[in-house]
Amino acid sequence: MTTNSSIMYGEDLDQVPLLDNDDTLGFGEEHEPQGKLKHPLVTLFHMAFRTLAILTYVFCGWFSSSFIASFVTIMLLLSMDFWTVKNITGRLMVGLRWWNYIDDEGKSHWVFEAKKGDQQNRVSSSEVRIFWTALIATPVIWSILLLIAFFSFSFKWFMVVCIALALSGSNLYGYVRCKIGKSENVTDSAKSMASGLLQQQLMSNMMNMFSRSPPTTGASNTVN
Question: What residues form the membrane-spanning segments (predicted)?
Answer without folding.
Answer: 54-78, 130-151, 157-176
